[in-house]
Write a structure and sequence with these properties.
about 550 residues, Amino acid/polyamine transporter I, Recoverin, domain 1, 2 domains, two-stranded antiparallel sheet, 2 strands, globular
Length: about 550
């Protein structure tokens, strides 16, 4: 994979292809720029286009300080995840770290919590999508039902995820970049406007900090989800060139860039327009604050352009969110903590269709039943709790590394353990300030996780090595005739003739070869062979991993 082709793909936003190319090479090399682009693309979306008005509803025009405070709380978790990712660069990200640190019970709880947080963030993006779409349709005098359009978008996103049309994601980064640049140009022009009042956001932040700091904490907790993408990149630690340097630097530079962007844009927005322009007539927060801002300071035509771009950005973000959240169910099923059907991939499209469908249905229920603000609060609450436990993981693994000889991080967190302790305490304070809904949501995740493990995972979770060892012995040093038989059996099970085997196809081929194991043992063997965690194995690559005997 050449530097030129990699750079071109990153600039086009084709992140999935870059990661796939990297995985297919013996030398894995994702550079610092790639890490930063992936991280930024995962963050800028609803955090910039929807959340500002909800934060302003809580604390008024000083919301830039809420974004800054949230970034400070994210920082320890981002550094902790850098350390964990440099040791465990595996499919599943945070779920894998917590499962290996604390065991299957907390692994189940965290996996379901992460799944919930990502699907809630995606639901929030679709709510923003419908708000900006309403602005566009109103301008063109077209009548549509916002919820109907949001649900239609969810159906489209679900179908695209099942079909595995990953190139749709390549539109996200250029659209997002163009929208952000256009917004920054408008903000820059406003700096020289006659109506701008810098005292408004400054006094707003100082007044809240002095008179009611709890409101500042509540707003910071709400916007916390805007930074969720900063730690997503930790899951690809195994594909990063020189991870002990590029991974932490990439995360920290991304955090710095996005924090400056959030604080700068929200500061200028509040300084440029007087009054409570971020509220609807009924006093509720607007779900399209960027359109309202641009419409007020520039023109309606430019505002509609921003709204159209925001529609594309929101739906692309939701597409990514469904992809990410469904993979948590997929990863948990691979560890025998959820039913096997959730790890089965479609034989034609090679995507975990049941995990995607369940995620989409849950999103639909949340969008129909939960108030908009509660969706954002729950998503932020889950993310804060997970980051708190990630900080705790580093402390536990450092203290108990005599019992965990495998824990040798290439990157070690500075200021250990004080940085982690700060992250845990600050996160706990934010969750407490968010109120009972966030706490109830966290407790619900704990109860559901424990119940799921006791009802299913406890009976199936076994860290077996013997079946794979036995399988390896059976397959080692095959004769040319044995190799032909195995290849024929694999090809016969390959329904769509794409040289890949799903789990069900692999099991069929094993039975055809009269190699018998229990269902859980077949799954364990398949997972060991599926080194990329994609849900399929390449037939030729798999067979070539077993050296063949020379014919006499």
């Amino acid at each position: 994979m050449g530097i030129k082709s990699t750079t071109e793909k990153l600039l086009k936003g084709d992140i999935i292809s870059v990661v796939s190319d990297v995985k297919s090479q013996l030398e894995r090399s994702l550079n610092l720029i790639g890490v930063i682009i992936i991280s930024l693309a995962a963050m800028i979306g609803s955090g910039l286009f929807v959340l500002p008005s909800f934060a302003a509803e809580i604390m008024g025009p000083g919301i830039w300080l809420a974004f800054l405070l949230a970034a400070l709380v994210v920082l320890p978790g981002a550094i902790s995840k850098s350390e964990l990712a440099s040791t465990m660069p595996e499919s599943g990200g945070s779920y894998v770290y917590l499962e290996r640190t604390f065991g299957p019970v907390l692994g189940t709880i965290s996996g379901l919590g992460l799944w919930a947080s990502f699907l809630l963030k995606s639901a929030f993006a679709l709510i923003g999508f419908s708000a900006y779409l309403y602005a566009v349709t109103t301008f063109f005098e077209v009548t549509v039902n916002s919820m109907t359009m949001a649900m239609s978008a969810l159906v489209l996103i679900t179908v695209l995820n099942i079909f595995g049309i990953k190139k749709v994601k390549s539109f996200q980064t250029p659209i997002l970049a163009f929208t952000t640049i256009l917004l920054l140009i408008i903000c820059f022009v406003q700096l020289f406007g006659s109506d701008i009042d810098f005292s408004r956001p400054i006094d707003g932040a100082l007044d809240v900090s002095k008179n009611d700091p709890r409101l500042l904490g509540e707003a910071a907790a709400l916007v916390f989800v805007a930074y969720a993408g900063i730690i997503k990149v930790g899951a690809i630690g195994g594909e990063v060139k020189n991870p002990q340097k590029n991974l932490p630097h990439g995360i920290l530079y991304s955090l710095l860039i996005v924090t400056i962007l959030y604080c700068l844009v929200t500061f200028i927005m509040m300084a440029s327009v007087d009054g409570t322009w971020w509220l609807n007539e009924d006093g509720s927060a607007r779900e399209d604050p960027v359109f309202a801002f641009v419409d007020a300071v520039a023109s309606t035509n430019i505002g509609i352009t921003i709204a159209i771009l925001a529609v594309l950005t929101m739906i692309s973000g939701a597409l990514s969110g469904v992809l990410a959240s469904s993979r948590f169910l997929f990863a948990m099923a691979r560890y025998n903590l959820l039913p096997q059907s959730l790890e089965d991939v479609n034989t034609k499209f090679e995507t975990p269709h049941w995990a995607i469908i369940i995620t989409a249905l849950t999103m639909a229920i949340c969008m129909l039943t939960l108030p908009v603000k509660d969706v954002a609060k729950l998503a932020s609450g889950f993310q804060i709790m997970v980051i708190m436990v990630l900080n705790l993981s580093v402390i536990v693994l450092r203290k108990a590394n005599f019992a965990h000889e495998w824990y040798h991080p290439k990157f070690k967190s500075p200021l250990y353990p004080w940085l982690q302790i700060f992250g845990i305490l600050a996160g706990g304070i934010l969750v407490f300030i968010m109120g009972q809904k966030a706490i109830i949501g966290g407790l619900a995740a704990v109860v559901i996780g424990i119940a799921t493990f006791n009802l299913y995972g406890k009976r199936h979770y076994k860290n077996k090595t013997t079946p794979f060892q036995t399988f390896t012995q059976l397959f080692s040093n095959p004769s040319p005739s044995d190799l032909k038989i195995r290849h024929a059996a694999f090809k016969a099970a390959d329904i769509y003739d794409n040289n890949h085997l799903t789990l069900s196809e692999f099991i069929s081929s094993m039975k055809a070869l009269e190699i018998y194991f229990s269902n859980d043992e077949y799954r364990f063997i398949f997972h060991k062979a599926d080194t990329e965690g994609s849900g399929v194995i390449d037939i030729d690559q798999f067979l070539s991993s077993f050296p063949c005997e020379e014919e006499e």
